[in-house]
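Aggregate trends can hide what the representation actually does to any particular protein. This step matters because it turns folding into a mapping between discrete strings. For completeness, the protein is quoted in full, as a sequence line and a line of structure tokens:
=====
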Amino acid sequence: MRLVLTEFVTLDGVCQGPGSPEEDPSDGFTRGGWLIPFLDETFVRRTSEWLDLADGLLLGRRTYEAFARDWPAITDPDDPFTGRMNALPKYVVSSTLTEASWEPSMILSFESVAELKARPGRELQIHGSGRLGNALLAAGLVDAVRLVVAPTVVGSGRRLLDHPGAPVGLRLTKHEVTGTGLLLLEYEAMGAAEVGTYEGVGAFV
């Protein structure tokens, strides 16, 4: 399966608490809910299409516990995501979680992700789980990155692309702008990032 990191981020890279101020107040974060003012039909349609490609969800403990609390409680028959989020296999990367009640779920170690990824299928998608996604990107296990970038600067909170590993190269494969100003970006992971030295514009024209 392709391992795809799917994340909602602000312009300054914050991925914490996109859905509401109460979603993730960890570490004293009080600025959640920043994505909601920009939701529109294009966003819903495109993210639903992305979810259609998933054969499983790969989640960190914190995101799993929040999702397990919230998704089974959604009863809106018009919600385009709930049925699939509840039905898809959930793989939880954790060394502390001992029970995963949001069926179907399985707890596994970080070291087992490569073996899971090697199974046949379409996409194994990371949703939320910024720390896990960061670690897997640094480990070279992420095949693609999908970002929804909100046109807002939060100024504090947990940031997505912030890891101590080697620089990672990405190639933009798709891009789209919604009517509310959300950037929908898809990247292919290219291994180690290239670097260079500026020698004047003559090298590029």
